[in-house]
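Researcher: Let's run the pair from yesterday's discussion. Sequence first, then tokens, for each.
Model: Starting with the first of the pair.
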Amino acid sequence: MKKMNFYLVLCTVFTLILTGCSKDETGEIATPDSSNVAVLQLGPVLNSPEASSALKQQETPECSDATPGFAQLSIIYGPNNIVKEDIIVPILKDGQGYFTAYSDELELPIPAGMNKISVTLTEFVVWTNNGGSPGSVIWVAPVEGSEFEDFVDQPVGPDFTFDLRAGSKNYINVDVICYDNRDVNRYGYQFFTITPVPLVKFCLFGNYCTPEGRHYVASYNAEIWEYNNGQIGDIIYNDTNDIDGEGSQAAADPLCFFLPDHPNQDENEDVFYLKITLLSGTPGYNGPDKVIAEGPFSVAEIKLLFGTDQFGEDNGTVDYYHFQYGCDNGVPPPFGEPTTKRYKACIKYLDGSDDVAGFAYLSVEGTTMQAVTSVFGLTPNKTHKQHIHQNASCGNYGPAVLALDYNDNTWPLANMQQGVSFMNYAEVISGVTLSNLQDRTVVVHGKMMGQTYDPDQPVACGEFSQY
């Protein structure tokens, strides 16, 4: 589908190649024993103590379109585990991508009687070129043991070890990441790893309401797993929010997480799974720990929370997902209480000339349905009809079987919000007996046809699936 610049962040993907290479011939060196020499081809040395000092102080880099100029790396090599730190080499590019240049600094001796040595990469940082010297850090490789090590195939550290042979030419991938820094949290210097994988911010904030309707700040635990093809995978985060104060005076900050936005991944695909547990320590709550919300979600649903300015451009902020247990607003999509049946549809334009996208959510208990739609790019200041349709495919959605309108039979209106046309609909519909919702579609109507608005013209469709 088309990507709309008011909620999508673009990131250029690169692969940096760490090149292992030796001279074609071996020779004698001035040591008691004759040794071969292996050359780790990484580039001319830039003796730059200023760059080394800046590295130690540099914050984790944000994603950018800047061109890489230099790599700064540290290695441990040979049978005696010799350490070389803060080696700086230029970065070159050919038809296969980026790679590091040849460097005399990386001419490594191989002891007599051996034809190879072990090399361990312990840090790897990518800088821009500032007039022949390192400028600013744009990518880093995460180290083993950091909270981002699972975002790459191989973080740098003790396990990033390979053999360097005399006379060989090896190419070893080093994955790096950058992140989309739209929250106030800052990291100490992390060494990340290079297909740059941007990290997007996802935040939670919760309330608890007593049966009488009094609001309190919720104490809760949030767990996030990887999710693939309907199956929960490895856990990514398990964290509990901090509450200051007691009772009605209690306060808390949103609980935030960084999640990977892999460049080759469909943003509308569910790739994470969240479970929220209300804790017994919640002010005003006298019950046991209780799972109150769970479900899969996508990167696109995170980006729906990204803030925009008055022109509809990304302003670098993010709203938190706000859930309320026991309150009127309850647990909003995309998550729900474990006892409910939930269905989701990714809404896409029907005509390639339109920039329409969004999500529809259905939550069913008995014959009561809660329906929510959030759609961008519709004709502003116009009402838009929307229905659940009989068939499962947007290629043949069939007749309408249930109107998604308000209880007074009016249709939702698309409004301009900070330069973006946005329609947000939420309604509780009673007496619903429609079955097989996972085999239904949702169709949104209303489109400008030349100079005339046609309220009946289908403009977007989504196919429901249970989740």
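Model: Moving on to the second of the pair.
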Amino acid sequence: MLSPLVAGLNNPANRFQAANKLAHFFGCLHLFVFIVDREIGILLPAPGFPQTLPNGKFWQDFTLGCSKNGHHQGLLPFPDANTLQESVGILGPEQSVIVFLGGTPTHEQIRPLIEILPILINLFTRELVEFSTQARIDLADKAVTKAEKLAATIDIMRVHLKDALVEQKKDKKAIEELMQKKDEFMNVASHELKTPITITKAYLQILQKLIPPQENTTAGDFILKANKQLGKLTALINDLLDVSKIHAGQMVYHFAEIDSKNLIEEVVAQVQVTTQTHQIIIAHNVPAKINGEQHRVEQVINNFLSNAIKYSPGAEKVIIRSDINDNTVKFSVRDFCIGIPIDKQQYVFDRFYRVQESSKNFSGLGLGLYISAEIIRRHGGTVGVNSDASGSEFYFTLPVLDA
């Protein structure tokens, strides 16, 4: 008689109904099974059982008593907060808890059930992992979709703002108001986006541990794609926050002595591992001491190198060099792309500006060079570009520290 009742627990779709039939067999009204969610380390109703219970604090204290003492007896609210039922709970395998409501069966009466509990708990635990994994895959898919929609929305906004900036007939006051509202929007939106992105990254890391790539190639590919999209979205948000800080006067710098030679070598090593299409060549690298915030100067060099690789897909190398002249050190990065028209070169360091000839083929907001220029100016340096049909050379200068 017990075997068919236990077999009914195999299907999570009608598991609670089957559990109640099993409870009736032992003279009770309801049967609940709680298992440990290994990800968060707390007891939760097993798959197929009601996931929301009335007066949850009562249930939490009851199951905690079972975990501490091996068994517990008392009153529990079910099916509503006003209906209290006499209940008995026992500690099962893998720190699980089994609760009988509406009756108090003895240990001897439920011994046959106790003997097969390890099989049931193993089944419920595997189901919980599978359900959690699917939920996180769905979350990763939604994150990618949201990232793509956000990128498309910001790209449209960039086009409108660029048109507003380059169109000289626009009313100056209207443009300033538009830019102020845009900065306020970007600042608020960027901060609001950081929290869900951080949480989503954490979920993806957990998901990556739950599903080894060798066991589930499709899920592994989804995780990699979601992480890649989140990386792009994070870089975009960081640029937007930097722009907001610049305009609010909140970009803080912590200056210290920097070895320019080591600086170039470190940044080149970091960027080189991110590309398989280009070789970054250090043509000349002078040892010099400069005063600045290393993280921010690295950010500028990284941006110049990344742009050189991005906008020269047909080339195979990028050249970087440093030279000293008149107590300044000049850092320059040369690519071998189609070049920038001479009438557009004066605008490349403007906010949101992108050369029309390349904007159709390459994604971006036109913020990297603007942020780089503001960083170098705050360091007392200058930025510039030289370009012709053979390629472009972006450079910046910084004062050399006195001996």
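Researcher: Give me one sentence on the second I can quote.
Model: The first strand starts at residue 30 and ends at 37.
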